[in-house]
Specification:
- By secondary structure, this protein is an alpha/beta fold.
- The protein has 2 domains: about 140 residues, HAD superfamily/HAD-like (Rossmann fold), CATH 3.40.50; about 60 residues.
- It is about 40% helix and about 15% strand.
- It contains 9 helices and 8 strands.
- The strands form 2 sheets. It has a 6-stranded parallel β-sheet, with helices on both faces. Strands 2-3 form a two-stranded antiparallel ribbon.
- α1 crosses α4.
- The longest helix is centred in the first third of the chain and has 16 residues.
- It is globular, with a radius of gyration of 17 Å.
Length: about 210
């Protein structure tokens, strides 16, 4: 029997809001001469189930190539400057790994940046797969990303157990859509939730999985 835990990244494993916000604001200034956004606004926008991020961030109806190129160039320089693991994450990951739990990451961030940040924070080696939105046709809350990971493990729901750990409703909906259990992390970008299975600290995940 396998135990598989799929983690969201931003707001679950790492606090990346400062570097995301700085990079968005750099593009706003460079390409649109727009005023700076707060970290709170950016986090709230990212976590909305339905939103038009180009409109919220750049006052455009869809992402322009100029904005995409500028953001990726800026974020490549910025993404490891202020980002850090939440307290207790590294210890929790090692505790799961020591018990042969399968660990992967499903993030709506680009895969390249996810790998760069997790390698910088010295935890990338703990994950069998790190999959970003660029590796699938539909990002979370669509279950495609989770299915891709579960297929990698040859997941059999009759004998294996799988969980999705995340900090927003898109993560919980992706778990529901993939027919696995969702666990809400309240230490990240979304401290409040109506979701029943929620954690206040990463160590609380251990008795659930083990």
């Amino acid at each position: 029997m396998q135990k598989i835990v799929i983690f969201d990244m931003d707001g679950t494993l790492i606090d990346s809001k400062k570097d995301i916000t700085l990079s968005i604001n750099a593009v706003r200034k460079l390409n649109h001469n727009l005023e700076q956004l707060s970290e709170e606004f950016v986090v709230e926008a990212i976590n909305k189930e339905e939103r038009n991020l180009p409109k919220l961030f750049y006052a455009t109806q869809e992402y322009g190539e100029k904005d995409r190129v500028a953001f990726e160039a800026e974020y490549a320089k910025q993404c490891t400057q202020n980002t850090y693991l939440y307290e207790g994450i590294k210890e929790m990951l090692y505790a799961l790994k020591e018990q042969d739990v399968q660990l992967s990451v499903a993030t709506n961030a680009p895969t390249l940046f996810a790998k760069i940040m997790l390698e910088h924070l010295e935890v990338a080696k703990l994950f069998d797969l790190i999959i970003g939105a660029d590796r699938v046709t539909h990002s979370k809350p669509n279950p495609e990303m989770l299915y891709k990971i579960l297929d990698f493990y040859k997941y059999n729901p009759a004998k294996d157990s799988a969980w999705m750990v995340g900090d927003n409703s898109k993560d919980m909906l992706s778990a529901l859509n993939a027919k696995i259990e969702g666990i809400f992390a309240t230490w990240g970008f979304s401290p409040k939730t109506d979701f029943s299975l929620k954690l206040q600290h990463p160590k609380e995940l251990l008795p659930i999985i083990l």
